[in-house]
From TrEMBL:
This is Diaminopimelate decarboxylase. InterPro entries: Ala_racemase/Decarboxylase_C, DAP_deCOOHase_LysA, De-COase2_C, De-COase2_N, Orn/DAP/Arg_de-COase, PLP-binding_barrel. The gene is lysA. The modification N6-(pyridoxal phosphate)lysine is found at residue 60. It comes from Micromonospora acroterricola. It holds the Pfam family Orn_Arg_deC_N. Its EC number is 4.1.1.20. The lineage of its organism: Bacteria, Bacillati, Actinomycetota, Actinomycetes, Micromonosporales. One of its GO terms (molecular function) is diaminopimelate decarboxylase activity.
Length: 438
């Protein structure tokens, strides 16, 4: 699952005790395990290797260029969703041939950039976007490859939050499946474009492999209809959505997903079709933690509160989606060393609300959480924070974004320094360095 383990009474990442990271870099700090990230990428790719997919890591989950570069060296491509992420992919040295661009509201500049770089595939989401892309393609004299993002109208089960469900009718993403064939034909008739296939992304996270099965059957029926009238479909992008382990062994394995997906696509790949995946969470979530420090303990009514130095600006998921993150002291009392992330069997725990320093009533990281007795000043880890952690941080309340640290074996490197007050106001200073305040 990951390489954050308790040893000698304290939490380690690979060969490095996290107390030493906190002492050296301060908190809150995101700490990533390179071995976990690489291992997850390799094992995901291996589960599907019989259909030789292009695995484009979804940069929206984790976008630090050092980590994108690490994945790139393993053969990963990048799923970008903005010009900013395309830029990150380029800086990280990702081949445009392994880069795809998605997004419901791409600007013409973002599309133009993707056309100029001739990336592997632009996933378009509307008729109007196809028109715009065609115009840009003519202006640039490049024939871009594109796929149509289809909304297959498939609902995941209730374990996927409504706010991260993307493939049901009426949602903002993609083109209704019954309109997709007509749009494909429109794009196929346009010699400025190279329409290659379809893209789906159903939501995140999706725990039931059958959700993919239902969506794929709808997609493959659409492919068959188009092939029956002479079109050739060469790219099918199944998006991301594969889960991570927020507790312990609660998610199906990659092999469980492969079992449902692979046999549906062997015919397609045998005829030379290219399958693309865009996993983010399943690769990155367990590869990172947010290392924080308890600032205060206080009583509020009947509740015990632990006020820590990481809030919704440093990790937004709990406040935004009521998401569950396992959290535990870095140096718990001897009787409370967890052997797994299911701590329901441990005795002597106290119930806390864990809150951050932000001036918002929603700034709770956990409510009614059983934890060992906490001490002010003690380091505290929020687990499974590698995906949608740092990428969703903000400067609200003029909080500084955390540092990011990468651990590989016993090596520690700072891969993003903590922001400073100068960073906070830097963009508000004008070119001559003045603030025009006088
Ligand atoms: N492809 C597309 C088109 C997507 O929209 C997404 C995620 C992915 C791939 C990657 O999905 P993954 O493999 O990571 O599940 N902020 C939310 C998650 C939002 C996901 C948005 N799209 C959270 O923290 O749970």
């Amino acid at each position: 699952m990951d390489e954050f383990t308790y040893r000698d009474g304290s939490l380690w990442c690979e060969g490095v005790p996290l107390t030493s990271v906190a002492d050296r870099y301060g908190t809150p700090t995101y700490v990533y395990s390179a071995s976990t990230l690489i291992d997850h990428y390799r094992r995901f790719a291996k589960a599907f290797d019989s259909i030789s997919p292009l695995v484009c890591f979804s940069a929206k989950a984790l976008s630090n260029i050092h980590l994108l570069r690490l994945l790139g060296r393993e053969g990963a491509g990048i799923d970008a969703v903005s010009g900013g992420e395309l830029h990150r992919a380029m800086v990280a040295g990702i081949d445009p041939e392994r880069t795809v661009l998605a997004g419901v509201g791409k600007s013409s500049d973002e599309l133009r950039e993707a056309v100029r770089r001739n990336i592997r595939c632009i996933n378009v989401e509307s008729e109007a976007e196809v028109e715009l892309l065609s115009r840009i393609a003519r202006e640039e004299g490049v024939r871009p490859r594109l796929a149509i993002r289809v909304n297959p109208d498939v609902a995941p089960d209730q374990r996927t939050p409504a706010r991260t469900t993307t493939g049901t009718r009426g949602g903002k993403f993609g083109v209704d499946i019954e309109r997709a064939a007509a749009l494909f034909e429109r794009a196929a008739a346009d010699e400025a474009l190279r329409i290659e296939g379809f893209h789906i992304h159903l939501g995140s996270p999706i725990f039931d492999p059958q959700v993919y099965a239902v969506a794929m059957d709808r997609l493959l029926a659409l492919v068959a209809r188009l092939e029956a009238v002479g079109h050739r479909i060469t790219t099918l992008n199944l998006g991301g959505g594969f889960p991570a382990e927020y507790i312990d062994r609660t998610a199906p394995s990659w092999d469980d997903f492969a079992e449902v997906i692979v046999h549906r696509l062997t015919g397609f790949t045998r005829q030379g079709g290219q399958v693309i995946f865009e996993p983010g969470r399943t690769i990155a979530a367990n590869a990172g933690i947010l290392l924080s420090t308890v600032r205060y303990l206080k009583q509020a009514g009947d509740q015990q509160l632990a006020v820590i130095d990481a809030g919704m600006t440093h990790i937004a998921r709990a406040a935004m989606y009521d998401s569950y993150h396992f959290m535990w002291p870095v140096q718990p009392p001897a009787e409370a060393i967890p052997s797994s992330r299911d701590v329901s069997g441990l005795d002597g725990l106290t119930t806390y609300d864990v809150v951050g320093p932000i001036c918002e009533s929603s700034d709770y990281l956990a409510r009614g959480r059983s934890l060992p007795v906490l001490k002010a000043g003690a380091h505290f880890a929020i687990f499974t924070a590698g995906a949608y952690g740092m990428t969703m941080t903000s400067n609200y309340n003029s909080q500084l974004r955390p540092a990011e640290v990468l651990v590989h074996g016993d090596q520690v490197s700072l891969i993003r320094r903590r922001e400073t007050y100068a960073d906070l106001v830097g963009l508000e200073l004008l070119d001559d360095g003045s603030d025009q305040g006088d």
